[in-house]
Specification:
With 578 residues, the protein is α/β, with parallel strands linked by helices. The chain contains 19 helices and twelve strands. It has three domains: 202 residues; 148 residues, Histidine kinase-like ATPase, C-terminal domain (Heat Shock Protein 90, 2-Layer Sandwich); 119 residues, Rossmann fold (3-Layer(aba) Sandwich), CATH 3.40.50.
Length: 578
């Protein structure tokens, strides 16, 4: 049993010590006054008045003692016995009704007296359920019930009045019945208490696991991305060198390493993305997004892959179609769907990107002419690591995470993702997002179609450029240094913020890692450099939302490791165009 349960069951709050008892007492005494008034018409007036005064005085005495400061200073055992004595005295005052309120031979008066005593016993039971002091309540019950019960039994037997002795026996049995009911209720309350505390502990444990998981993946994200990022940089640097040697075995080895790196990079990114989504770290930044520029850009980015697979890419979208979405998340979702469509479409067929109205939403459809999906398998494809027709788990067909991530990202944007397909008739994947009708809204995200091919390698743009590289990881730094130098750039490498600040003067472009040794982070350094008018790109192995939000607040471009050389090249080109 947990500590919380033990504390509540072993040391419960005693109702005798609660302020609420003082608020209940006047009502109880008013009820006693009504009973005394009733009996004043049956018995001599001094009897019910005396009984009422005794009851009130003992009740006032009990409350005054409980509310004294000295009472709080008593030990737990002393306080327990003091409370028992006070309640027993108060109940004895009520029980004096067996003498002061007893009307021999009057069945109505005896019934009213029995009902009143039953009410007193019921109140005691509520005290018992709250305080768990069974001894105090059981003795008090019989102090109240025993005198009147015995008198009724004896009178009934002596006078041959069955109604009296039956009422008397009932009065004597009521405490036992009430105690049994109270004990059952206590057990139920105790079980509910245990269940509640266990549920709260389970929720807390789950929250702790989620937090630990988030911290674990935050750490592993950085530590895994660093070497994977470095491998990619070194590969890009040695590929042209190996190609010049003409050594066939070396070229095959480099090609194999490159494919393995791409597979590892894709798997790492997807697993970490999924972990972040499960931990609720990702948050959508919903804003109006123009669909036509976004889809045009996606067509441009996938043009090379489509040509390689001999598949035609088409789009049907108008300039007036806008959705409320996170532009980065939406691009990731559609990139995944479009990549799958190209992968499964046979040569010579068409993959269509289309936007259709769907109530208050725009439905973005990606249609292919592949083999299709059976109806009983359509829900499975959105589960993690599910791949249809890939029993051998070939990495060339992916890892079964893309659609699971796409679904979670769509839900974060308050949208829905679905599939419509029949075997042999292709597949239509759809993403439904809320419309945004006002195309003139300021700040609308228009990820306009680029005027150049993003997959080009125009490294001549960097010839002679002076670039400051701020990176504390030696492996990554050397890889980045060799890559930038292979593009013709002149690179100054600094491992700390202080050294970078000293070397900033002669550099046109600055690549800055977010995590740096010392007190100044990469974002702080980048902010200072940007304030001087310098062009800065942040590079980070961290994937948390806070880092992205902070970079966005200062208008800093942020790349997440591992960064493919082509992506780095595009980012540097974009920075030069600013």
């Amino acid at each position: 049993m947990s500590t919380g349960i033990s504390a509540l069951t072993k040391n419960p709050p005693d109702p005798e010590e609660l302020p609420a008892d003082a608020r209940v007492f006047p009502v109880a005494m008013l009820l006693a006054g009504l009973i005394a008034y009733f009996f004043s018409h049956i018995l001599p007036g001094w009897k019910p008045l005396t009984w009422w005064l005794i009851t009130v005085s003992t009740g006032v005495l009990r409350l005054s003692i409980i509310r004294r400061t000295q009472f709080d200073q008593l030990s737990q055992r002393q306080r327990c016995w003091r409370l028992r004595g006070l309640i027993w005295t108060f109940m004895a005052a009520n029980a004096s009704a067996a003498y002061f309120l007893y009307a021999p031979g009057d069945s109505l008066a005896q019934t009213v007296l029995g009902v009143y005593l039953l009410a007193v016993c019921t109140v005691l039971i509520f005290h018992h359920v709250s305080s768990l002091d069974e001894t105090r309540v059981l003795v008090a019950l019989y102090i109240v019930a025993l005198p009147t019960g015995l008198r009724l039994v004896l009178e009934g037997i002596a006078e041959g009045r069955s109604i009296s002795w039956i009422l008397g026996i009932s009065t004597l049995l009521v405490p036992i019945l009430l105690m049994q009911i109270a004990n059952i209720q206590m057990r139920l309350m105790h079980q509910q208490l245990i269940a509640r505390v266990q549920a709260e502990n389970a929720v807390q444990a789950l929250n702790d696991v989620t937090l630990a998981k988030s911290r674990f993946f935050a750490a592993i994200s950085h530590d895994l991305r660093q070497p994977v990022h470095a491998i990619g940089l070194y590969l890009d640097a040695i590929e042209p060198v190996v190609a010049q040697t003409g050594h066939a075995i070396a070229q095959q080895a480099v090609a194999g390493i490159s494919l393995s790196w791409q597979s590892l990079n894709a798997l790492l990114s997807q697993v970490l993305d999924l972990a972040r989504l499960e931990a609720n770290i990702e948050q959508a930044d919903l804003q109006p997004v123009a669909l036509q520029p976004l889809l045009d850009e996606l067509l441009l980015l996938h043009r090379s892959l489509a040509e390689e697979r001999q598949v035609h890419l088409r789009a049907r979208v108008t300039p007036t179609q806008y959705v409320l979405a996170d532009p980065v998340m939406l691009r990731r979702v559609l990139t995944n769907l479009l990549g799958n469509a190209l992968k499964y479409s046979p040569p010579g067929r068409v993959v269509l990107l289309a936007v259709r109205p769907a109530g208050r939403c725009w439905q973005i459809q990606v249609r292919d002419a592949g083999q299709g999906i059976a109806e009983d398998q359509q829900e499975q494809i959105f589960s993690e690591f599910v791949q249809l027709d890939n029993d051998a788990r070939s990495p060339a067909q992916g890892f079964g995470l893309g659609l699971a991530i796409a679904k979670r990202l769509t839900l974060l944007q308050q949208g829905q993702i679905g599939v419509r397909s029949r075997p042999g008739h292709g597949c239509c994947m759809s993403v439904s997002l809320l419309r945004h009708e006002d195309s003139a809204t300021a700040g609308i995200s228009q990820t306009g179609a680029a005027s150049r091919d993003f997959l080009s390698t125009r490294t001549q743009l960097f010839t002679g450029r002076r670039i400051l590289l701020v990176e504390d990881d030696t492996l990554v730094g050397q890889g980045m240094l060799h890559l930038l130098q292979s593009w013709g750039a002149q690179v100054e490498w600094a491992g700390t913020a202080a050294l970078a600040w000293q070397a900033r003067a002669a550099c046109e472009l600055i690549l800055c890692d977010v995590r740096l040794p010392g007190q100044e982070s990469g974002i702080m350094l980048a902010q200072r450099l940007q304030a001087e008018g310098r062009k800065v790109i942040l590079v980070s192995g961290e994937t948390d939302t806070a880092t992205r939000q902070l970079a966005a607040r200062f208008g800093l471009m942020l790349l997440t490791k591992p960064v493919a050389p082509l992506a780095l090249q595009s980012a540097l080109e974009a920075l030069l165009d600013r």
